[in-house]
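Hi C.,

You asked whether I'd gotten around to modeling the 504-residue construct. I have! Everything is below, sequence then structure, no commentary in between.
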Amino acid sequence: MRTKRTLLNFITDIIPMVIIALIGAFKIRLFLTNLGQETLGAYQLFAQIFMYLTLVEAGFGTAIMYKLYKPAKEQDLIKINQLLSGCRVIFNIVALVIFGIGLVLSFGLDLFIKDRTLDYGYIQIAFLLNLMANAVNYFFITFSIIYNINQKKYKTNLVTQALVITRSVIEIVLLTVGGDLIAITTLGLGFNLLIQVIIRWMAKREFPGLDVNVKDKDFSIRQDVKHILPLKITSLIGNNIDIIVISSFLGLGHVAVYTAYNYIVNTFRNIMNKFSDAALSSIGNLTVSDDKDDYAFFREYNSFIFFVSGILCVPLFLVLNPFIRLWVGETMMVSELTVFLFVAILFTAIIRAPAGSYITVYGLFKETKPAAYIEMLINLMLTLVLVHFFGITGVLAATVVAYLVSDPFRISPLYRVKFKCSPLLYYLEYLKYVALITVNGIAIFVLLRWIEPANSNLFSWLAVGSAMFVENLLVTYLLFKVFVKEFSFQQRLATLLRHVRKGG
């Protein structure tokens, strides 16, 4: 049942996400055509600034999930209501503080924009609307949490994704008929509010014992925040500093170029994040069970994630620049080295997910703080230095170096404290997986690179890109099947699908 719900959570996330990604690609092209590079850059900058404002949240979301695993498994409704009631008070304060800071910050947006030509009042209003659209979610977050912890996220996914798709279609219509950035952000505020109201209504109906207003509120999650906050800071800097630095030192036009590539890369990254999110509650449930072998499952899960990262990243490197040429034009293209770094960040982010999931469910927040500080400092310092010499390429290189240097400080506590073995075992497997992926990647590069997919049209790009993907999938699968004994996740999925077909 754990694995089945994980699959349902993933499917109800992933199918709408693919649809949203395709619609979003068309929307970005309309943004560039109708509103220009600078407006698209400003829109992306707003999102990045808001991500930094979420530091106010300080990791309470992660802490409450960790606290709820055990009472949810034991169906302790009293404890669940106490925790969620405390959580609700905290997140209401978080929402108000975020909006207050954002309001003040709206008067200093020029600090993050080089050579602005857009009217300041225009971008300030759009920023505040975007801020409200995101901050409103915190007032309702407890109702989403109860679905996540009960492994029923697929139910909220259906509502959320359907409305997001509807909003995206309306945004395209607005852009086509002359709508501006203010119209787009106003629409986002309305739809976000509607989504949260519907989820609240659903939770009240499905969980009649749910009460997020009990008098005996549990605020114990505050004890874990001091350890979670450094992890949140490093995640924000690693994933969200790039656009702010590029906007501040290079300008909004360069942000638009970065956004085009990052949109494709982040689509794949978000797909894998959805899989990890769907699996998280199942892993949490597994680790509080008595009949478990966490280390064996981790190795199985880890080998599968490396396999997936290989089949995604190798062909993506070869077809990304040709797609950008077709999608937004040759003037938006970057060098192959820059493309490699975009893909390297995606690869590294994907393979870090299994360890990250286990760190969360085990609550190893204190033990992994050194990794957070190291990653944050390296990324920040290198980014600010390299952007002056290498532009976007330097910003990406800083992120890759920060990931690689800090990673041992994340893995060591997990292996030594929980798995009771040397972290060297992880890196021996790491090198084996990377070697297998590299061998196949070089073969594809040598054999197929000369074809230059997509020089003429989207159909030729799709045909050659699909051929690369299928060849890479088959060869990578065979290599893992032969050389990786831990690679048995596919058997678990096959068993699950048989149960699903039988209605089990």
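If it helps when you're writing up: The CA atoms of residues 24 and 168 lie 7 Å apart.

Thanks,
B.
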